[in-house]
């Protein structure tokens, strides 16, 4: 059974929900159009409802109360512990992460999972921090205005107290860094020379050195802990703030879904890095100051030369980082395009497969990826150079300093050189941290600009006011509205005004136009039908019918009432709460009941009444768990009619005053449509105001008022009788409808009618088909249709690393790159050794010293006759190190970006060739997370951390090799400590793996929730679910950030303890303190790779070797099913059972059957979207399973029920890959009656199509889909409800086009209109996956007990009733 989600929702009677709109006292607030007083300003939310259950309310307390409690050195366990143990920790526990120890031990015992991990601390959660960010942004806007308001300034205020703590901890680190080499180490060396010294003093100084190293580790570790927690707080605040601002818009015209996903998967991480790494710049500066002073005290003025070299590194890093960020900004534009196209292809994968578009679209995306890779290589090279500065700059600075020191003939001894190098050694950490800080801050600025541009603008002004007259429900006076923002007197939109961004062509083929990230502002002159001078008064409780030709502005009128369009002149007034049924149903992932209730209270009597009036009872009987059956993402296991009726049921159950119904009867058959009209619209909604948009004119005679729209204007307005007497356009349409045959009056009676539960009539057939999941009454589906993402346990297998190396070019490429970095480390070690050897030689006269010469003075190196040779080798080693490091950066950047690109292309190939069942059960958000979030880690994070890991690991190995030469005892101790560290790390890595995997897997539901919210903004606002969706986002983002923080803290927990262990080596190896290297592993980013490696099961190959289609195949188009059986997935019912039939070439066959009968499954079988369980299909004698999928599907054409347009241009949608001439395209547009519409665009065929085709009406989209099929010139056409959203006049013309254009084709028409079915050569009636009738329509009409005859009888009775 489905686990019922308990969520707080607004009152169904239409309570107020303030969305931060800047409106007057008489304007609309939220979704209920009532007069109210808005007390807060434009950036506040008034009358906030109680927080949803599950989101912990923050108790009122002082600003620093929680932090001060954490400042207590040691705290006892309270009687009532906080949900998160960190909130009860003392200072010592907080800085050493001791509170995390029980979870690390639990992970060691394999007992750690999402159920045993505490929730995010209330002080880090989105509720508290988003509220604080809101307040800080309000103050920033009030001080500087919206244009000059600065996100970085807000960030500084957000963490200013913690920055002060960073400064103090940085001072502690800097002081401890120089105390050891300057004060303690000389004393230890002095006592080592003086054998008469006190043993207690010797041991005391050794432990003092150990203590300073521990304090140094604790200080820098505390900086990381504070910054990481602050970064997570800012991340939750920014994400929630952005989502809340996003939810204020009822439709998005200023940002595409690709840009939204890119922000939440990429930019938000850049903002986090800015907060996390930025404060480390203070630590670097403090270290530079203290180390320079210490070195000056030891060596003299020449020490300033090293400091100057380090100072030169910082501006160099700043310059490189800025260059990298500029390149990354260009990369983001290409990435946004790639993600957007990928999202569209994944969403419409069924259409892509049926048109055999996998390869062309894969090429488009791979071409974009190729461009993206070139830019990534540029930014990656700059990033690699900044990392290699860590290895090169300390060595070069030391070489320059000592060479100048010697050139100036200053004395240099071994002890002086060692102490100076030890004093300057902490600057290695500064050089290491500086690139992170500079890059973090620079990336923060660019991400903050996008954040401000997209999300921090003023909320759109709602231009719909509340009516004062209670007798009126709707009044429009001289209302002129547009989808485009225009500046008009008295109207301040407050929305974004983004200029066009120059995006290069996505998948530019031949002369294809550029298809950038198109927004509505960029769409030429026509953005769908604009409404001009609309005058309309609707009385309360009346039913208004709205009709007009396709594209006349019917849906736009409803959008205007919803406040989605921009009011240019006039006024729009509404009284009462709204309910809205969009033309394309919006379905959320969940059960049928959850979709209907939309979070409202369950009223059984009302709920059952709604099911009856929306004709859903029969459908619920078919579904395996009734109304508790889970609906997959986007309603994948429902037909179009079922989704539409669920959307209607949601509106009816909401119990509102004003109902906006956008063609709700287009996707249901006539009998069900009539039942819905009578029982739902006329009876259940009696007394409510209803605006009904419809193409089915037979229902308009029952409306109190009828509006006829033409080209965005009201052409006629009145009652049915008045308009008929005028004999105008409306009368002409009605007479034309009546002049058609009896069948033409019923626009959706293409199959036997469903049994009405209230009437108990014999069951016939229904127009609707459960595609993707043909339900069977005898067996139930698995309840969880969308499978939960499984999380791997244990360490990553070698297969993952092997896959990455192979993608990079194989071991032949990997080994030379590894040798380059090894050479860099060797040169660094050699440089240090050469200086040591040089100083030991002294004046060059002590080369033959005896055993007692260890204490003898080697003399002044300035007197050595071979001084030029030593200087030459010393300098050349540094120069060679620079060359090798640059070569390594070039090679490493090339192979890592090649690896991520190869893995991306492999992922594309896997997903593109995946079975349709894979897409039915896998949320798009999960797949997009792989193409966006995980791929970003492979592109950006993994190369950086892998490079650092290689350098630091090899440096540690080199230190051990040096130690092994000097002292076996020290080597033994160091090896022992390192072995203990490795065992410690290996054991506790289990907990880190769990946290990281949970963080990876927590992204998918968040991504899916964002996409669902974007697609349903209108419905979310109408039903008052804004707060609920925001609350759900807060839960999801808190979960992800909780896992992220625990992952960061767990790595810090391990690193801190390993550093304490390695500090033990300092007790024995004081001379090698200059190579004090932390052994923390950076390899966890490779987990993103495992998400890409393990994906879907592939379908059959696109091409089969040595198998070629016969020339001109298929010639006749004859289709033969031989004992054909089909199921969609393993462990699901058989949906086609022993189909045996032959469809002759050039024959038109109408297919009818009830829901679940197997109609659309025939199309699935024909296109091989699922493989047969038994039997076969022959086309002109060729077994379709013997052919490659590309060879098969390219010979077929489909006209889907849901019109699908991709963002791009009109030409791209009709001919995506440039296979036809403009003349051929204009010809099909003429035949589909679109040439006049397209000609209105100045760009013609190059006119832009926005995301989801939103700048065209649904009817226009359907006509474009028909034109697309006409261009294919296929011999076999599969038509699935192609004219459901087209007006009567256009439908009659399209029916004629289909008959004439496809005259020489084999046409299969699923559940079409009666005229089409009766004109077909034969009728195929399906029931329960079997063929029950298959003959000519006139034969079936005369056949006793025929289901088809029952359909005609029902249709005739319905016609009589309507007349």
TrEMBL record:
It is found in: Endomembrane system. InterPro entries: AAA+_ATPase, ABC1_TM_dom, ABC1_TM_sf, ABC_transporter-like_ATP-bd, ABC_transporter-like_CS, ABC_transporter_C-like, P-loop_NTPase. SUPFAM superfamilies: ABC transporter transmembrane region (SSF90123), P-loop containing nucleoside triphosphate hydrolases (SSF52540). One of its GO terms (molecular function) is ABC-type transporter activity. This is ATP binding cassette subfamily C member 11. The chain crosses the membrane at residues 163-185, 205-226, 280-299, 305-325, 380-404, 416-438, 808-834, 872-892, 945-963, 969-988, 1060-1084. Its main location: membrane.
